[in-house]
Amino acid sequence: MSEPVLSVRNLRLDIPTGAGTLHAVRGIDFDLERGETLCIVGESGSGKSLTSLAIMDLLSKRIERKADKLVFDGTDLTKAGAKKMRALRGDRMAMIFQEPMTSLNPAYTIGDQLMEALLLHRKVGKAEARRRAVELLEKVGITGAERRLSQYPHQLSGGLRQRVMIAMALMCEPELIIADEPTTALDVTIQAQILRLLVDLTREMNVAMILITHDLGVVARVADKVAVMYAGELVETGTAKKVFDAPMHPYTRGLLRCIPVPGKTERGSELGSIPGIVPSLVGKVSGCVFRTRCEEATEACRGEIPYRESAEGRHNFRCVHETGRRAGVEEPA
Amino acid sequence: MSEGNASPPVLELRNVSKTYQIKQGMFGERKPLKAVNDVSLSLQRGDVLGLVGESGCGKSTLAKILLGLEAPTSGEVLVDGEPIGAQNRRLLARRIQPIFQDPYSSLNPRKSIRDIISLPLRVHGIGDSASQDKAVREILDVVGLPSRVMNSYPSQMSGGQRQRVAIARALIMKPEVVVCDEPTSALDVSVQSQILNLLGELRREFGLTYLFISHNLAVVEHLATRVAVMYLGRIVEEAPVGALFDEPRHPYTEALLASVLTPEPDLGVPDTHLGATYPNPIEPPTGCHFHPRCARVMERCKGVAPQITCDGEHSVECHLYGRESGQAVA
Fold it and tell me: Which residues form the ABC transporter domain (chain A) (predicted)?
């Protein structure tokens, strides 16, 4: 296999606070191949958005980024300066945010905003940029593309705006797209359309994608690879099929029990829940971060937590228990 | 719906409409926007009516009418068989209470939890401060919060805890109907399940009736006993939860159900066949409002508005099932 387009080893993010250092992200590893979709799923505060901003070097100056390896398409991002990063962003790597109304500039037309990246990063004229903008608007399923170029963001619906954001991200044919909750603000019907579009286009153009979401349904349907994030760590990674069909980490299993599944969960029955709250990450964090809420927790969870590979391979989880369960506990029927 | 039932429905809407006059542009003429268009519904005690539909379909306007925050342009709302118009707002608030989506903006950040929860008691002049404190402590216990949070402020609490406070505030007046407008969509998955479990328990314990508005169909299927599907101000299909999810009739309901992303990795992203975007409610399409997006559109749908057809407790507004069309298409 060729070099991964993105390779991350031991990524750490520290935020100094009045009460001490907040270790928001602690030692994340993953590789992303060309054309592959990785979904990072986790609850609010798990550090999934910070991770994506760290890759784009869009973190606030306050936050300290450290990594043993952070290589994107042959470029060592830990050594890349502001100028190099500006050249990469919008060109080789692009981002799609949750709320298209706040990430589009209300004072510029759709056309201006679409053409900006291409005019900035490529030696093309306005006519050529305009042609490309129309081409991409059509590609993301916007009718009357020529006319849309002179419209302003407020004249478009939420679904259309998100299509514009996708078109914008694809203008320079990037290697990597990071989409942070791209469909959370949209109706379910529009969500399905936008996700289909993202999946089809990234596949067609062989673009790698990191999709960040809290929605397990989205993850299952979109991901090639899944990374489950909890309190700043990836607690389980693997192919979507393995993570959903045979979840190993107690947190992943807990999350999956929380959501009602049509046709499977009995209507009106009690849903599973994960008691407790995410622990403070200020100061020294040791042992398993999930142990305070874990039903499988034992004394050993305070110590070193190994990364394990499940029996079938390409599926890793971080737990002291070999099977993700306390010894002697039978799997419930 | 359930005729022959001796007690009147807890809540009934009869041909309720709400029309807003919208001005287009600074000098544009005013045009009517029918946010709620001739809606009739009835809820029996203990029912959970799930109300689903895309944004802009009129769900929240309907909720506001029930809460007395908007007056209907025409039609009647009845509580226990009595028209709301005859009651004043204060009496209405004793019987119908809301739980809103965002527990961050629906709680006053400058008030303590005690003040927030006891406000309804103070407004209605019920009890002295000692008995109000006692009531607050009891209701906190009911929603699963320790009584020490009484002196806390919303900023000191998590999203799930805040939503529990909002539920406590809604329940302290012992209402009959609770209008839940997207009560869990701002919450994390693990917290959402706790709030849903709590709402289920409270309903069983206090015989509450819910109007449950949500865009999350899996959640609606889980909690609701009946479901109404709304499109451009109309209820296009209404049925008991099993019938609606197992045998949806309206093509719009089918499309909504098809767009639910269950956590099943083999299925991929579904094609909902809903090509065109949601229409502008100021200029709704002619005939059946849904026809431009409908996968099973017929010639008649473009010109003639369909009538409601009832089959037991399952009603649908679609030409596929109309009497004139003779036979329902399977």
Answer: 6-256
